[in-house]
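Appendix B, Record 12. Input sequence as logged:
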Amino acid sequence: MQNEKLKIKLSIADRVYPLTVFPHQEEGLRKAAKEIERAIKQFEQSYAVRDKQDVLAMCALQFAAKNEQKSINNSNQVNEAEQKLNALNELLNEFLGN
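Logged structural output:
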């Protein structure tokens, strides 16, 4: 059943985290864990950082910044679309009014 939870284990920063999740969450969590592991390796190689706490903090900052930038970009796109729709609405009103 879809409502039954799965027990999975994710490895992040040399630690295993047992989780109980719904089946539809598993793929996203596994992909997220892989992305975190990739970012950890990148930070460790690029900056020769050995302290996992520092590396995890930088990963958290990187992911949070990406998320915030997406929100900003989406907000800008919504504003642009709204402006275009308003302009189109004005044109339609002018056309229909004549």
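The mean pLDDT is 91.
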